[in-house]
């Protein structure tokens, strides 16, 4: 699912740092929300995005098209070694990292203001960009992740989760 312009995107070894922090944000978002309703909303949005993404992965398996360059600096090399253990360069479209960033933004934006909101926005944009500059995803994967995150946010609306039945959860 790569286009010719994907080959022109530079590899930036240091971008592995924001890329890996997505996992930390994933854990922290559950503790950051303040109400049971906020927790249900973020939980169901993440679940919907994950299940949908996995279904797409099964129907359209995709692998990153280029070989990642060898990283020689010790710290980034160690981080890429860890990354290779937990996040292989396949199951590309849509990017769950990007979909999660959209969902994190929707969940955390109302909880902060001023410089904290700006910092959150900047970091989530950096995480999204890191998916391309670490050569984990192509631009089409990023676009798919944005659409998936927005679709999950539009589907699971605050205030509506109490009306969901057990059947909804199984669905």
* Biggest beta sheet summary: none
Distance separating the two termini:
29 Å
Q: Averaged pLDDT, please?
A: 89
What is the string of SSEs from the N terminus onward? HHHHHHH
- What's the overall geometry? globular
Helix and strand content put the structural class at mainly alpha
Total helical segments: 7
Uncertain stretches: none
Helix content: 55-70%
Sheet-strand content, in percent, reads: under 5%
Number of strands: 0
Q: What's the gyration radius in Å? A: 17 Å
Say what oligomer this is: single chain
Q: What descriptors fit this protein?
A:
171 residues; 64% helix; 0% strand; globular
What does this structure look like?
- The chain is mainly α.
- The chain contains 7 helices and no strands.
- The mean pLDDT is 89.
Outline the secondary-structure elements.
Elements: H1 16-32, H2 36-59, H3 74-86, H4 96-108, H5 114-133, H6 139-155, H7 166-170
Helix pairs in contact: 1-4, 1-5, 2-4, 2-6, 4-5, 4-6
How would you summarize what this structure contains?
The protein is mainly alpha-helical and 171 residues long. It has 7 helices and no strands.
């Amino acid at each position: 699912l790569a286009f010719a312009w994907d080959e022109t995107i530079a590899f930036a070894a240091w971008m592995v740092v924001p890329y890996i922090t997505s996992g930390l944000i994933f854990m922290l978002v559950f503790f950051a929300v303040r109400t049971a309703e906020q927790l249900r909303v973020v939980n169901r949005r993440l679940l919907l995005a994950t299940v949908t993404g996995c279904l797409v992965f099964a129907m359209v398996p995709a692998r990153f098209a280029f070989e990642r360059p060898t990283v020689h600096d010790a710290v980034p090399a160690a981080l890429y070694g860890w990354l290779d253990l937990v996040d292989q360069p396949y199951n590309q479209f849509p990017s769950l990292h990007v979909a999660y960033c959209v969902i994190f933004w929707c969940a955390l934006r109302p909880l902060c203001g001023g410089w904290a909101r700006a910092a959150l926005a900047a970091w989530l944009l950096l995480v999204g960009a890191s998916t391309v500059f670490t050569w984990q995803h192509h631009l089409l994967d990023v676009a798919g992740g944005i659409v998936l995150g927005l679709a999950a946010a539009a589907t699971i609306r605050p205030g509506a989760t109490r009306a969901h039945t057990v059947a909804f959860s199984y669905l």
